[in-house]
């Protein structure tokens, strides 16, 4: 597996823009752009993008008063997010991004924008179909994020959360030594081993590349835990790490859960550590646990916590309509 801290390079340098490989020292400017965009989706996170770089390389550029995030995979340039910045500048920024994508990519498909918010789509539609000259936009729904209220996740009141309470009580009866402690960067090796255990227990042997990406991203998050401003809790049974929940505070104030990994042979570990992670927050924040990642079982698990809202997002494809 590549080193999560490896330097990135690029041959994509179309003038007049300067594209830089995404690096840790870009966090302040990235966070300012995220705050200006005002979107609370899990993908609008510096840490999330910084860590998931096993099969693609990420670059940033300042374009028309906004920040553009670009990904290069197999020689094709795309955008993991739409232009980040003040909403009133996004249309102009998108035009600049499309010009850059056109110079980098061949074929009828100019490029793709992932994880586009409904507000951004609405602003594009306000401009009408012809405003982006020589191009057409195709908008497709993606799997939504799940949002919860912190107080509800701590209290777990009522019949709808009875099974969650039962799972937690069973864990505490079975493992009276179970305790929750703050997660630290120094736990990186124990977390790596837990992550590999979790992946092996899932048995997704046909998804080797996805397993590698997951392990790489978790290792990168722990390696840069402090620099990324992450926080979390760990579940310890005796002297053994049995689970972690790892998150961050987005610029919008929403708490974003990046990873949750538990020993699947410990029933109730996931329910217990998520509740304790929420308990440790110092306000009644909204908590975003991300989307279903293409897994029906994960979607069912997230739905069982009765989200207070869903965060819709879209894939936007940009097509050439004129030579």
Automatic annotation (TrEMBL):
What residue stretches are annotated with the Phosphatidylglycerol lysyltransferase C-terminal domain?
Answer: 42-316
Q: Which InterPro entries match?
A: Acyl_CoA_acyltransferase, LPG_synthase_C, UCP018688
Q: Transmembrane residues, as ranges?
A: none
Highest taxon, organism lineage:
Bacteria
Q: What is this protein called?
A: Phosphatidylglycerol lysyltransferase domain-containing protein
